[in-house]
Amino acid sequence: MSERKLIRVRAVMRSEFYTVDGMATVDEALRIMKQNDAESLIINKRHSGDEHGLLLISDVARHVLAEDRAPERVNVYEIMAKPIIAVNPDMDIRYCARLFTRFDLSRAPVLENGKVIGFVSFTDLVLRGLCEMY
After folding, report:
1. Does the pLDDT at position 79 exceed 90?
2. Prediction pTM value
3. What are the C-alpha distances in Å from 26 to residues 39, 40, 71, 84, 85?
4. Is the pLDDT at 102 greater than 60, yes or no?
5. How many CB atoms are located within 10 Å of the residue 49 CB?
6. Domain limits of the chain?
7. CATH class of 9-133
8. Most CB atoms within 10 A, among 19, 36, 113, 125?
């Protein structure tokens, strides 16, 4: 039986991610998402004591589309998740998958020294991590 490789989040995360200000409208956020083919955006901190936020396409579907609200009249801060659960880049991908499962997450930002350095999803964990493990 072969020994499993230790694969860390840093090896499978995507370093390209997109940000938006919480005061932006959902319409502005959707333009960024569409332009970059992104399903989520990191919400910038307002100051050093603040926390990052997260906006998912599903948040827009639930809180704007399903409620028949106008995207140009809703600010991102009204529907975003904050504070968010983030992962350490040195975390083993198996523990990251367990964290996602425990808290019903599908993706999370990767934080190092309080700064977002990437984004990781279940897809990354499986296709870029698990496939390399054995």
Report:
1. yes
2. 0.86
3. 13, 12, 5, 19, 22
4. yes
5. 6
6. 9-133
7. alpha beta
8. 125
